[in-house]
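Anyone have tokens for PTS lactose/cellobiose transporter subunit IIA? Sequence:
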Amino acid sequence: MELENEIMELITNSGYARSLVFQAIRCAREDGDFEQAGQLMQQAQEALSSAHEVQTRLIGEDEGSGKIPVHLIMVHAQDHLMNAIMLVELGREIIALHQKTHR
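Reply: yep, here.
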């Protein structure tokens, strides 16, 4: 049951990071509120870091030897994390473009 909780934590934090990035982009695009966008991006990075900590812990427990069973939910969690990582990076670029064109 603990493994399932860790996987759900990975999914939850990754999804939260993703949601925060979209909020940040909206703040930049619709309101020109780059300070708020920056704060949301910081929160997204913190959520992403929490998710990454879970992933790192699971990798360490597995030790590359298949100790942790890979189920569909684990693949789903990894997919969420990788999408969140990409979106945080892309979100920074999108916000920077909005900031540049907002002047």
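The chain has one domain: 2-102.
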